[in-house]
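# step 3/5: fold
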Amino acid sequence: MLQTLAQMWMSVRTYVESNTWVATTLDIGKVALALIVIVALTVIALRIRKAIISRAFSLIHLTNKHQTTLESLALSVSRYVLLTIALLCMLAAFGVQIGPLLAGAGIVGLVFGFGAQTLIRDVISGLFILFENQYTVGDTVTINANQVTGVVEQLNLRSTHIRTWAQQLVVIQNSEVRMSQNFSRQRMRAIVTCTVPYTVPYDTVVTAVHQVKEQLLTTMPHVFLTDADGAYVELPQLYGITDIETHPTNCKYTIVALVKDTHYNEACNALRLSLATHLLMRHDAQEL
């Protein structure tokens, strides 16, 4: 029985070797099968990497924003690594010698390096932005002196994606970030100005600001910054007269307060509305 099977196998092998088209078909089948396996494994690896990375970073005690930023960076780097490995495996399936290819990668990399200096600068700048914690995903920032202002949606090695207030997605290369202003670092000073005629007494404005402070402390105390003991750091107060030259009949008053970064816009709007309301009320009372 075994001898019969061996003879059959030798006959099949001889037939395949003597018929070129059969051998070619089998080779194509092997390559196609290898490509299918490589693609399938790559897709699986790309899908499970997110869960692995999220699990790994959850074991480290980081803030939500910092964790989101690092996860985004790790996902970006791992995607490039997996796709590069898949490409090399595909080349090997086609019979390309990977050893000499990797050996010559140093020379090729040197050649491409001269033409990819901007890319290298982007990557280095991205690393410094990340390690120096200049901004993270979810922060509200202004880049390059009001060139673009918005919320950071993605921070990659090459670029930063910022969503503006008008919902435009702006992509800026990391090497182009020369100056960044971060509005999401726990505290912000709400600065509100109002222009009042010279005929309005200074004490009237002082009283209105005091009423604004009392009202906001009652209606929205959560917006103001507190210290470790729970005491308010800087409640709304009159900074003073900050301009008497721009308007010939009016002077400008400035009101300031330290608020939490997450409530900055809310606090500024509330200060303006409350201040305008109390000044108008006192003006009407004086007219009466």
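# step 4/5: annotate
The beta strands are 140-143, 148-155, 159-164, 169-173, 180-182, 187-197, 237-243, 250-260.
# step 5/5: archive (pending)
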